[in-house]
UniProtKB/TrEMBL annotation:
Residues 68-85 have a biased composition (Basic and acidic residues). The gene is ISM1. It is an enzyme of class 6 (ligase). The keyword Kinase does not apply. One of its GO terms (biological process) is isoleucyl-tRNA aminoacylation. This is isoleucine--tRNA ligase. It comes from Saitozyma podzolica. The keyword Acetylation does not apply. Residues 97-115 have a biased composition (Polar residues). Its EC number is 6.1.1.5. GO terms for cellular component: mitochondrion. Residues 28-115 are annotated as: Disordered. Residues 745-855 form the Methionyl/Valyl/Leucyl/Isoleucyl-tRNA synthetase anticodon-binding domain.
Length: 970
């Protein structure tokens, strides 16, 4: 039946009770009550005499499952696909939570732990489930990032050895890449279901895939909007370039490798008297020598010397003309000691200010005096320091961003950038045209390999090599191949970041960052960036629909894009490579199609176009401040002066238990599916264990993951399950409408209300580890204190005892609340508890969130708990084994809050036979306990009453006789 029970200091709650009177001998504390009054007969007969009179726990829910993955699958559909559809269809659009946006997963990643827990999928699902539980309508659309090198390289691995994208047609590359991506998506979709991720996996619009035509057209229309606003330009500029993958890279696609070895060189650029600036000539004449003069430069990239077009100096630095075995050298005065160690003895003959060196011209092996103008010259740049090198910086605008910007700022940027390096990173024949036939030995050699040896050999032969050093330093590498990159001037498409930088910074002021310090990282990346190279020289991507006329000038405007996009929308983006140029070009002109594709970060950064509103949450790793977080922000500002997200959550990365980054190549990778389903040598823990671990760590930092971490999470889940099972087994159906809530019942309900507030705040602030910590602490306290206090009344009181009904109501309310609080993190366990508890809704998530309020005075209960913990220390002197064998005296100023409560209640809470609120009349073992209410004196003595054979309490007046309570029940 259903009865309305008034919980003290809480709102009215509807509580349904179930009567359970059948035997359940699962716990030793329950079994001890099955004793007998009989003084004769066997021990076994005595134990059975009263077992049928006890109200022992009963539930069909097992304490643990032999095969957790199989049991979880019973609740999978109702808590994932079906739940998502129900909450979308059943709820008013006005309750919409908004949208949570997940970075599109790369299908090539499969299920390495770093991609799925805790930092991505599990955390997303916890956020979404919490909102559904709170009654919101959630729009969660997971996606797959399919374009770019990761998929293309994996697809090429399926072909015969020696096959590369350079030997295949673009359409062939795209076909095999698309097939590879589709296969991987289905695998990952299945894995995410196994992890219990709530989404509309197979329904229309349930997921998005960046290689679908609809998504690609959205992306191209966004690109068109940026073109119309003047944000897109095409020009020759130095860009990061990866010879290993033959494409330009954005800064976000670099990883830096420590310990990279480079052969650095000190080189002399000769200066004739006629090429000297007035200031340098005066300093030279002051030396009173006729020694040849050279500018001393140092570089770690000897391969870039053919591109040298100038030497940068600092206007405020002091330079010297020093005599050496190589003649007179110009170098910074502050670098004299370091240079002496590098090239030998130096003698300063005169000095000159950096500003007085400007105007000096010079020659070098790759720009001899006979070469065409303009000649390389000395110019000023603020980026020059005396921290390393010579104080004179070799500058090649085709091979360095700072060099390019410095030349542009000085107004001396050459009209043609010297860049004799091809797409494979090898020197070209162009070198020979600049210099002499002797440099032909460089042609065809790798600038990162044998070309370095050949270059240094040439420098040694012509006498310009001053010294060579092998250095170890930090060097940028391709993020996928991990091979070194170079900076190379190539014609590329750029998005103007400066145009949106100010509104970008302003929009971030309205974003909540988790953790707060991640704001600084994203803002720093935005501030330091002036442009974004958005073009890539690969086939697997969204084409940049630019046409080029006979002079090589690009045609890219609103009109051309509208026409081309309409064609690609109808025929698919493959048609850019298969269709004739006439399908795209305007009449009366000769054009060719460009071969570049859009940066994959433009792909993922366009995902906001699927939404009708700003997303509530974006969540990804710390590397995405320069990737997806930033690209989404920059592209969104094309449409609106706001960020595309309200909350931006940054997670750390997953390390093994030795603190090393997880990777398959290192042999320390652990797949989520291995944790969930097990392997030949390890058990399957199920998804809830993995999710418990994911929620228990501080995901905003790097976290360790391995067998011991999973074992700990499994133990945490076991304890939660055990506590909930006790609640479930003792929440039975009763036949009375009266219930009385004791002091400890009210304390538990008040603590529960406080826990609900703490958990709600933690979920709202995305602090899921606080949820787990609070829940495990609360249930542990319940198990060790409250459960032990109430077992006697639960098992031995009358079924309709008001005191017992209050306990049952407390247990049922606690179970319902804990089930809801645990549900977003461990949905399978929550659904199992809800089903065994007779829930009427299709899912526990549809029951809503009912947070209680409580103004209960907790002081008496807290005092009793303090005294309860102090009682066991008094037993040993009296040779008593348990508090049940003792009677207890309490007196003193601190006892004030206890005087309004019956001693029978106090004895139940303290676990003793009797409690006397007065000093003992005879000498007893005494102690004092300092409490928040004052000092309480305590004394203990053996119980004066006998042990009841039914309840085992020392409450009987005669041996082998039922106590008054048990006698009345029986």
């Amino acid at each position: 039946m259903e009865i309305l029970v008034k919980l003290p200091a809480t709102p009215l709650r509807l509580v349904t009770f179930h009567l359970a009177q059948s035997s359940f001998a699962a716990r030793s504390t329950a079994r001890r009550h099955a004793s007998t009054i009989a003084s004769s007969g066997s021990s076994q007969d005595k134990r059975k005499a009263y077992s049928h009179t006890l109200l022992l726990p009963k539930t069909s829910m097992p304490l643990k499952h032999k095969r957790p993955p199989e049991e979880e699958r019973k609740f999978r559909a109702r808590s994932t696909d079906e739940l998502y559809r129900r909450q979308v269809c059943a709820r008013d659009p006005a309750s919409a939570h908004g949208s949570s946006r997940q970075s599109p997963t790369a299908p090539s990643s499969y299920s390495m732990t770093g991609h799925l827990t805790p930092t991505d999928t599990s955390t997303w699902d916890i956020i979404n489930r919490w909102k559904v539980l709170r009654g919101y309508k959630v729009n969660y659309v997971p996606g797959w990032d399919c374009h770019g090198l990761p998929i293309e390289l994996k697809a090429l691995e399926t072909l015969s050895a020696g096959t590369s994208h350079t030997t295949l047609s673009p359409v062939t590359v795209r076909r095999i890449a698309r097939k590879t991506a589709r296969q991987a998506i289905e695998i990952q979709k299945s894995e995410m279901r196994e992890l219990g991720i709530m989404a509309n996996w197979d329904g229309p619009g349930g997921v998005y895939i960046t290689m679908d035509n609809d998504y690609e057209i959205r992306q191209l229309k966004l690109f068109q909007a940026m073109v119309e606003k003047g944000y897109i330009t095409h020009r020759l500029r130095p860009t990061y370039y990866s010879p290993s993958t033959r494409t330009a890279l954005a800064e976000a696609e670099l990883v830096y490798k420590d310990g990279h070895k480079s052969r650095s060189v000190y080189v002399a650029f000769p200066v004739t008297r006629g090429d000297m600036s007035p200031g340098l000539r005066a300093a030279y004449e002051a030396t009173a020598t006729e020694l040849p003069l050279s500018l001393a430069i140092w570089t770690t990239t000897a391969w870039s010397l053919p591109g040298n077009s100038g030497v940068a100096v600092n206007a405020s630095m002091s330079y010297c003309l020093a005599k050496s075995r190589h003649g007179l050298l110009v170098l910074a005065m502050d670098r004299l000691e370091a240079m002496t160690a590098a090239i030998g003895p130096l003698e300063v003959l005169s000095s000159v200010q950096g500003s007085d060196l400007v105007g000096t011209t010079y020659s070098h092996r790759f720009h001899p005096p006979s070469a065409a103008s303009p000649r390389p010259s000395v110019f000023l740049s603020n980026h020059v320091t005396s921290d390393s090198g010579t104080g004179l910086v070799h500058s090649a605008p085709a091979h360095g961003y700072e060099d390019y910007e410095s030349f542009a700022a000085a107004g001396i940027l050459p009209s043609t950038l010297r860049c004799p390096i091809d797409d494979d990173g090898r020197f070209t024949e162009e070198l020979v045209a600049w210099a002499d036939p002797g440099v032909a030995s460089l042609v065809g050699k790798s600038v990162l390999g044998d070309g370095i040896d050949a270059m240094i050999s040439l420098l040694h032969q012509d006498g310009s090599l001053l010294a060579e050093e092998l250095i170890s330093h930090r060097y940028p590498c391709d993020w996928k191949t991990k091979q070194p990159i170079i900076i190379r001037a190539t014609p590329q498409w750029f998005a103007d970041v400066d145009a949106v930088k100010q509104p970008a910074m302003q929009s971030l002021d309205r974003v909540n960052f988790v953790p707060p310090q991640s704001r600084n990282r994203l803002e720093a990346f935005v501030q330091s960036r002036s442009e974004w190279c958005i073009s890539r020289q690969r086939s697997w991507g969204v084409p940049i629909p630019a046409l080029f006329d006979e002079a090589g000038k690009p045609l890219l405007n609103s009109e051309s894009l509208s026409h081309i996009i309409s064609v690609l929308e109808s025929k698919g983006t493959d048609h850019w490579w298969t269709g004739p140029v006439s399908d795209f070009a305007p009449p009366n002109g000769v054009y060719t199609k460009g071969n570049d594709t859009l940066d994959v970060w433009f792909d993922s950064g366009s995902s906001w176009t699927l939404l009708n509103r700003v997303a509530d949450v974006y969540l990804e790793g710390s590397d995405q401040h320069r990737g997806w977080f930033q690209s989404s922000l920059l592209t969104h500002l094309t449409a609106a002066p706001t960020a595309p997200y309200k909350n931006l959550i940054t997670h750390g990365f997953i390390m093994d238990e030795n603190g090393q980054k997880m990777s398959k190549s290192a042999g320390n990778g652990l797949s989520p599916m291995e944790v969930v389903n097990g392997t030949e040598t390890s058990p399957g823990y199920g998804a809830d264990t993995l999710r418990i671990w994911a929620a228990s760590v501080d995901y905003t930092r790097d976290v360790t993951f391995g067998p011991s971490a999973i074992t700990h999470a499994a133990e945490s889940l076991r304890k939660l399950r055990s506590a909930c099972r006790f609640l479930l087994a003792n929440s039975g159906r009763v036949v009375t409408t009266s219930a009385e809530f004791s002091l400890m019942d009210r304390h538990v309900l008040a603590s529960l209300a406080s826990l609900e507030r703490t958990v709600a705040d933690a979920y709202d602030s995305f602090a899921f580890n606080k949820v787990i910590h609070s829940l495990t602490t609360f249930t542990s306290t319940l198990s060790t204190t409250y459960f032990d206090m109430i077992k006697d009344s639960l098992y031995c009181d009358r079924a309709d005892s008001p005191n017992r009904l209050g306990i049952v109501a407390t247990l049922q309310t606690t179970l319902a609340s804990i089930t809801r609080m645990l549900a977003p993190i461990a949905p399978h366990l929550a659904e199992e508890l809800y089903e065994h508890g007779g829930g009427s809704e299709p899912s526990v998530f549809l029951t809503g969130w009912a947070q209680a309020e409580s103004t209960n005075d907790s002081r008496p209960a807290e005092l009793l708990l303090t005294l309860r913990s102090a009682t066991p220390a008094l037993l040993a002197p009296r040779r008593l084994k348990t508090p049940a064998e003792a009677q207890l005296w309490l007196w003193g100023d601190g006892c004030g809050p206890l005087r309004d409560h019956a001693t029978a209640l106090l004895s139940r809470v303290l676990g003793v036979s009797e409690v006397h609120l007065e000093p003992p009349s005879e000498a007893c073992a005494e102690s004092t306990c300092r409490t928040a209410h004052g000092v309480v004196s305590m004394a203990i003595a053996p119980a004066r009453l006998q042990k009841c054979p039914r309840c085992w309490k020392h409450a009987s007046h005669r041996e082998d006789e039922l106590c008054p309570r048990c006698a009345a029940v029986v």
